[in-house]
Amino acid sequence: MHLDEARQRYIDERPKYEKMAADIAHRVRVGATGISMKCNVTHRAKLVSSFVKKSLSAQDPWSEVADKAGVRIVVGHAADLDVALNLVNDLFGPPVWVADGRTLDGAEDQLRYPRLHVQVKAKPLPDGTALPDPAECEIQIRTEASDLWSRMSHSMLYKPEAALPKNVRRSLYRLLALVELYDREVERAVVAMKEDPDQVLNSIVAQSESIFYTFCTASYNMDLSREIGQIILETLGAEEKNAYCSELAGFAELHRGRLESLYRDYGPNSAAGLLGTYLLVGQPESIAIFERLQNAPYAFTAAWNEHMSNEDLLNDMKDIWG
């Protein structure tokens, strides 16, 4: 296809590529939430000017410019790169191609951008809109550190107004050593946190606090939070522990109206709370207590009675939750 024909065709079909990229990004976000992978997902359709510039060196501009639609997944650390790659494969099936710079041999003495790009075939759009042809999208997967370097250096190294001096180009590539070091140290810290025996407890306490502060504001007793958190842990199976933070968020959203009313009437800033009654309602773990009373009341009551001497505190929570 002639370059000018390809340019006009892309102008006509670019809205389709934009819509397709948005749908792929949405599917990735939903999938990432389902596996509790934190990431930032963006999308775009290539600018017409960028398409033309890239097409100048192509024999067949339409087929050779593969990134008409693009999605970028930015994860927190290097260990999540493969998690994101597996997610993409699960969502879209076998890729058209994969470019994985992490697996290249023989370049250990060089500083290189660790490229991880996947070309995927799009799924049918929910509203039935026709897909462009080819209905393919390039997905870039990066860590936060490598994304920062790539965005900073892209216009300088790959789209320069004029050729950069050698020492400037070398300086930009030297920064990759810091990117690699940063990613490795973050990964090591994440692994150490996962091996911490209190990791699940810490996550539950943090999640409870995060949800609690959407309903009210109050300082609280952290030691009590951790003590009750241990009791909650005893009522969870192995698989439940890993998914409990997500379950807790779902519980709070499902019962948001009821919880808003409850914290308004009995919370730390209510008349009852200011008098010092309903003590546990003023603690973040009250969210998890209500969830356990809803979904595992007998197991939670048994664990509470085994470890806590004050049954009245739990009875107050039962009366409130009903």
Task: Give a description of the structure.
- The structure is a single chain.
- The model has no long low-confidence stretch (mean pLDDT 87).
- The radius of gyration is 26 Å and the shape is elongated.
- The protein has a 5-stranded mixed β-sheet with strand order 1-2-5-4-3.
- It has helices spanning 3-34, 48-55, 61-64, 79-92, 144-157, 166-195, 199-212, 222-234, 238-254, 256-266, 271-274, 286-295, 297-307, 311-321; strands spanning 39-45, 69-75, 97-100, 116-121, 136-143.
- The relative contact order is 0.08.
- The N and C termini lie far apart (71 Å).
- It folds into 2 domains: 3-143, Beta Polymerase, domain 2, CATH 3.30.460.10; 199-321, no CATH class.
- The chain is of the alpha+beta class and 322 residues long.
